[in-house]
Write a structure and sequence with these properties.
- With 338 residues, the protein is of the alpha/beta class.
- It is built from nine helices and twelve strands.
- The strands form two sheets. An eight-stranded mixed sheet has the order 1-8-7-6-5-2-3-4, sandwiched between helices.
- Helix 1 runs parallel beside helix 2, helix 1 crosses helix 5 and helix 7 runs parallel beside helix 9.
């Protein structure tokens, strides 16, 4: 799993769900030698920055987007260019207007933080942009396995006919963060640079966890784990949505809850979401302020509410407490960590 010069005719995504059940679905297409195992998506982004960027090179990022990606790319010398997203994903016209970029970072299967999926038309337009501009696309596929309204989505990389997409995957969400195993699927033209950047970064990640994970995958345990956890998380998601509708429906608007382990909600009254997160912390609740996900001025305020680490009872209680906070009824009480 650490990557080797041997090639295979095709490599399915390790989850086993890239099987193209019908039109519009794509697998990750690669040989075994294109896979670099790393210690998570942050390490993958640092290696990608090292192999692609000179200091000051422009990289388009989603706005709002993942702060960890902004930090990793900026540490690699990138000049970050925020590009807005809408319900179809990254705004490609805004991307074209943003200026010369060396790369674009996207989360097409489940946009972080707002949750929508990039449409097929936008995906094709993004790939066309990369081809025309001789640019690269960094596809961060951090949790596409957990979808609740459709099958897991195919990869942008699988649609790429010109080798412009660097695919980044991780086991942090689907197993647990402490495992520290992620991977890059690198286009063949970039492999020499990728290997050099990889060797300069940390030589190779620990092989013990890789061996255990390889056995876990080979014996079919991972596919069974995903099937079971999808049901667990779907029940927790349903409890959170039910609680929000029951206790917070007049103060919050659910923006997207189709996939992943968090729900994005908007504050229609323009309330300060950072102050709300502080007040929630005083009651034992945790959340992320949507405004913290913007590189520039945040036009929308809201919360990211995680449900992966709490059972249904705690989630329902948490929404009750959140409803009290939203109405200004601060009372010491129940605790919840999403």
């Amino acid at each position: 799993m650490a990557g080797s010069p041997r090639s295979a005719p095709a490599c399915r995504r390790w989850t086993g769900f890239r099987t193209r059940p019908g039109r519009g679905w794509w697998r990750v297409r690669c040989s075994a030698g294109q896979i670099l195992v790393v210690s998570g998506s942050q390490a993958a982004l640092r290696i990608a920055a090292a192999m692609l960027l000179a200091p000051g090179d422009g990289v388009a990022i989603e706005e709002p987007g993942y702060g960890g990606a902004r930090a990793a790319l900026a540490a690699g010398g990138a000049r970050l260019l925020p590009v807005p997203v809408d319900e179809a994903g990254l705004d490609i016209e805004a991307l074209r207007r943003a200026g010369p970029e060396r790369a674009a970072y996207v989360t097409p299967s489940h946009q972080y933080p707002l949750g929508m999926s990039m449409t097929a038309a936008r995906r094709l337009a993004l790939l066309d942009w990369a081809r025309r501009e001789d640019a690269w696309v960094l596809e961060d596929d951090y949790d596409s396995e957990y979808r609740y309204v459709s099958r897991p989505l195919g990869a942008l990389q699988g649609m790429d006919a010109h080798g412009r997409v660097i695919y980044i995957g991780t086991f942090s969400k689907v197993l647990f963060p402490a495992l520290r195993v992620g991977y890059l699927v690198v286009p063949p033209a970039l492999l020499p640079e990728a290997v050099r950047a990889r060797l300069a970064f940390d030589l190779f990640p620990p092989t013990l966890y890789q061996s255990a994970l390889a056995e876990f995958l080979a014996e079919g345990h991972f596919a069974r784990h995903l099937r079971r956890m999808r049901g667990v998380y779907q029940a927790r998601r349903a409890a959170l949505l039910d609680g929000l509708a029951r206790h917070c429906g007049d103060r919050l608007v659910v923006h997207n809850a189709d996939a992943g382990l968090h729900v994005a909600v908007l504050l229609p009254d323009g309330r300060d979401d950072t102050d709300l997160v502080r007040r929630m912390g005083e009651r034992g609740l945790t959340a992320t302020a949507l405004s913290s996900c913007y590189a520039g001025t945040a036009p929308r305020r809201g919360l990211l509410l995680g449900f992966g680490g709490s059972d249904e009872r705690r989630l329902l209680e948490a929404t009750r407490v959140l409803g009290e906070i939203l109405r200004g009824l601060v009372r010491p009480g129940a605790a919840w960590c999403g």
